[in-house]
Amino acid sequence: MTEKLFSFHDGNYLECQNAFRGKNNQEYYLADYKIDGESDIDVQADKKAVGACSIIRLRSKSRLFFRRSWSHIQQDATDVTVFWFVKRGSVCVTHSTGVNVANEGEFGITRSMLPFSLECCRDGSGMHELLHVVVPSHVFRRFIPADICSGFSTPMRRREFRIAESMFTELLDDTEALTERVEKLMIDGAMSIMSEGIRQCDNALLERVSLSQKRRQEVLRYIEIHFSDPNINAEMVAQGCGISRRYLSHLLQTGPAGAFERKPTVLTPRLSA
User: How far apart are CA 95 and CA 41, in angstroms?
Assistant: First the structure.
């Protein structure tokens, strides 16, 4: 059954930070959420839970801002992937490798375990609308085992995306009480079709890496998340990543660190302890 996730207006929009995740903070993940108070404030979100996934329709007459930082990730390690179908207006996503803008009729992806910020902008008639599907990352890996690029966006020229969007919308708007089994079959089918579209897109999937490269990425991510902890040391990192201190030392001394190179350098005194 579809339910109201939140409803913000002039009288309560300042409460959005504490209310956008719904009852008991069941939706999304820890982040900064802000509504532009200088515009006509009318923000509505309806959702339907199907198994471990949520289908959410957001409509807004206001600009919206959303930010997920390393600090948020450290406090709340909820690991979900969000698939965005932009119906009206646009979504501007800023992430570690740049800025992507998904306009009306386009499709985008964000991942909660990587920092990013969003700005939801209205169209010429002053309205923003998007359909998004929140999926636990371990669930989606059944369909695509490889990591997806966070911030990726593409026009929905491929039929797979349009078909998947139609199926998600049908599930959200259903008023005839489909059985739980049918709903599960539909959402699995929609994600399978969407996955085929993603596979056909250039730059949607991260390049395959060796096991040692993957381990090293896990170590660097762990260091990034816990960097502010004054007690971080080699033993803590090794235990947190399930490897030995010797293997940790080997991983940090070999291969390119990419965007995280600065962290092991700064942490060298503590990681050698």
Answer: 27
